[in-house]
Amino acid sequence: MRCRSWIFALCAVVAAGCGSSAPAGQGGEEQAAEVRLDASSPRAALDARGEKPFAAGSRATVVEVLPPGHRSAAKAEAATDEEALPPRVLDENRRLRREVDHLRALEAEQRRVSLALGNGVGTFYDAPLQLDGSGLSWPVAGPVVSPFGQRWGRLHAGVDIAAPAGTVVRASQDGGVAIAGPTGGYGNYVCVQHTTQLSTCYAHLSRFLTRRGAVVRQGEPLGLVGCTGHCFGDHLHFETRIGGQPVDPFGYL
What we know:
- This protein is an alpha+beta fold.
- 32% of the residues lie in helices and 23% in strands.
């Protein structure tokens, strides 16, 4: 019995020693270590990346994050405003965009054509052609659907004559073929030099009926009406050029 009491007393002493708290200094260090090791706090994350927290009064940058295929709020609002326009206005806007694109495509070739004709590419033909107000004949029969002149800050360098696809395009006067081939937005393009200065050009042809270097007479076929290059319907784009520079054909037809 005395031995059992002694064992109980010893166990009580051991239990009391195990439950005693650690020294104040050691516990504070462990607690501080736990705080330092807590990487979930924003300040700890900044310290880990070597960054500084935002200064007082600073403004954060707001970035709009969109999933693929979605439009931003600003673009969506603009699109909504456009969709709210009447169909007549939307059709007119689309037509104007097409015309501007058409002029831009033709304008891209202007310099090359002007240089080619202005430098006398076709000077092999220099007949003594006398032109008055009716010196050139119409290359096709049809109404003029787009005249010569400026369009939204760009030059429409000829006249567009409506004609069915396949209509024969004829030389407006005697001359030598200086250009005959695909030419950017002009599509299949023929230029005939009548004098060292005057040339006529025919664009968007579906087929060539002549070749570069050929000598043609007034009324002879040069090609067929079509819609090659940049266009939005069968027609003939007809130009007159002086020294390679486009001028209004109505002064010569």
